[in-house]
From TrEMBL:
Species: Rotaria sordida
PANTHER family linked: MAM DOMAIN-CONTAINING PROTEIN, SENSOR KINASE-RELATED
Keywords assigned: Signal
Protein name: VCBS repeat-containing protein
Source organism superkingdom: Eukaryota
Length: 552
């Protein structure tokens, strides 16, 4: 479902502005100098927008109760008028006229918190062109003091808060995109801050988040680096200092095709495996207890094999995690049987060859015999195969099922709630998804097809509207969208709803990324010419609509 906003909507926030216990939306409209408020009906739909005047080119928006009347108010940054506008809420979904406060030059991101421990909300803003942050302390009546500025590095962008030195006072972290650092400002608890301590990142740090990544009860920092397409994690020492960054990036020439996570060595820590299409191997990195990862261990998939897709299961029933790989270059499916210590048997032990290059692979127990089966989709053909796996990890003869031309991705789920696994396949040629319902004996009904977008490339399964029925999400490569098809629980699906993605969305995964018990969507966008849209996270709002956060 789509809703009208003003011109070039950018910043967005969600809250209950009319006290009906239903979430509403506010959007900053960059080109028409307004903010739009869309009141929610509580069923996933929204009323037409109400527009309120902001400053010139409003960019980012945040929500808080600035006058202590228990009603939500709005603050918005105005990049070309060098101000923030505060709009006090009446509690019925409408707002008072804006009151403007001066900031630095080109204010961008805004965060709301209590920095001087007076129980009144304060405002902090990044100023992109004069390389400062502005702190505006709140009086608790909806008004604010004049700004106090602190110098940052070049081009401050991302902004977050946390208590980095365990003194119960809020501190600030800023990404300095122009000189590839983050700056940490330790707070004194009275609304003032020490000068920044800087820590190196990779190229052009942008998005920021704060959490405890190594379970030491200290907040750490994760940064997305837009230019080189990496993520940096900075773990915190005592007294607010940060360790040097941990950067995750594939080796030169790897051309990362797929990534998966599991515990490969039985230490209850999650490890990482990647399929390196360009270097013809798999890379496994084992996690340490401090949140860091060991050097990548390389497992060859063979000359010109070009591994494309991986899936994880215990294929030989020995209690260890094994890997199955679809090798696009050699038209083969290989297993790497796990030893339980993070290493694997050579792939040459078990393999099978195909007439066409495999693109996607999935695994599940389709015939309820306690053994896993593998389903494979191929490039430039119109069928897929199901292989039964023996307890030694080898494959039986395949059973072939027809698809529409050019299947690209496969995912598993129980789509008709009969406790039997089904599967779904995206097909490029007819721009659809095909659903195959399982009989529970390893065989499947003929496909049922549903329209997707232009050139669907990847599919994932989850319950996006909390009705205990499996739904589908699909990346549409040439539309720059993702499609969501809600399931009816009988094996059929509603017509797709589309949501904007970045340029050439290629892969999709799901998870609860903001701990609100709702499934969110993460999309990998192939075109790197727009560095802000290399990866996108779409956070879900009740019931099944999404907002788009571009974090690098």
């Amino acid at each position: 479902m789509t809703y009208s906003t003003g011109a070039y909507p950018y910043g967005l926030a969600v809250s209950d502005f009319n006290n009906d216990t239903r979430l509403d939306i506010i959007v900053a409209n960059y080109y028409d100098n307004t903010v739009s408020v869309l009141l929610g009906y509580g069923n996933g739909s929204f009323a037409n927008r109400m527009a309120y005047s902001a400053g010139i080119t409003p960019f980012n928006v945040a929500v808080g109760d600035f006058n202590n009347d228990t009603l939500f108010d709005i603050v918005v940054t105005n990049t070309d008028s060098n101000t923030v506008s505060v709009l006090l809420g009446y509690g019925n979904g409408s707002f008072a006229n804006r009151v403007a406060y001066s900031t630095g030059t080109y204010p961008g991101f805004v965060v709301v918190a209590d920095f001087n421990n007076d129980t009144n909300l304060d405002i902090i803003i990044t100023n992109g062109e004069d390389n400062t942050i502005s702190v505006l302390l709140g009086y608790g009546d909806g008004s604010f003091a004049m700004q106090t500025t602190y110098s940052t590095g070049d081009g401050p962008n991302g902004l977050a808060v946390g208590d980095f030195n365990n003194d119960t006072r809020l501190d600030i972290v800023v990404s300095n995109s122009g000189n590839n650092t983050i700056g940490v400002f330790l707070g004194y608890g009275n609304g003032s801050f020490a000068s920044q301590n800087t820590y190196s990142t990779s190229t052009y740090p942008f998005g920021l988040a704060v959490n405890d990544f190594n379970n030491d009860t200290r907040p750490d920092i994760v940064v997305t680096n837009s230019i080189d397409g990496t993520v940096s994690i900075l773990l915190r020492y005592d007294r607010g200092a940060m360790k040097n960054e941990i950067t995750f990036t594939p080796s030169a020439g790897a051309h990362l095709a797929c990534v998966a996570i599991s515990d490969f060595n039985g230490d209850s820590l999650l490890d990482i495996i990647v399929a390196n299409y360009g270097s013809n191997n798999l890379g496994v990195s084992l996690e340490y207890e401090n949140g860091t990862f060991g050097n990548e261990m390389i497992f060859s998939t063979g000359l010109k094999s070009h591994p494309y897709s991986i899936t994880i299961n215990d294929f030989n029933k020995d209690g260890q995690v094994d890997i199955a790989v679809a090798n696009h270059g050699t038209k083969s499916l290989s297993t790497f049987l796990g030893k339980g210590n993070g290493t694997f048997e050579s792939q040459t032990n078990y393999s099978t060859s195909f007439d066409f290059a495999p693109l996607a692979v999935g695994v599940g127990d389709f015939n309820s015999d306690g053994h896993s089966e593998i389903v494979v989709a191929y490039d430039d053909t119109d069928n897929l195969d199901v292989f039964i796996i023996y307890d030694i990890g080898d494959f039986s003869r395949r059973t072939t099922y027809s698809t529409d031309p050019w299947p690209t991705s496969v995912a598993l789920g129980d789509f008709n709630n009969d406790t039997r696994l089904d599967f779904v396949v995206t097909t490029e040629y007819y721009e659809n998804v095909a659903v195959y319902l399982g009989y529970g004996n390893g065989s499947f009904a003929n496909q049922m097809t549903y329209l997707a977008g232009n050139y669907p490339t990847s599919v994932a399964v989850g319950d996006f509207n909390n009705d205990a029925r499996s739904d589908l999400v699909i990346t549409n490569y040439l539309d720059n969208t993702v499609s969501v098809l809600l399931g009816y629980g009988n094996g059929s699906f509603a017509t797709q709803k589309t949501f904007s993605a970045g340029y050439y969305p290629s892969f999709v995964a799901i998870g609860d990324f903001n701990n609100d018990s709702r499934l969110d969507i993460v999309v990998a966008n192939l075109d790197s010419s727009n560095s802000d849209e290399n990866n996108q996270l779409l956070l879900q709002m009740p019931v099944n609509d999404y907002i788009n956060e571009k974090d690098g």
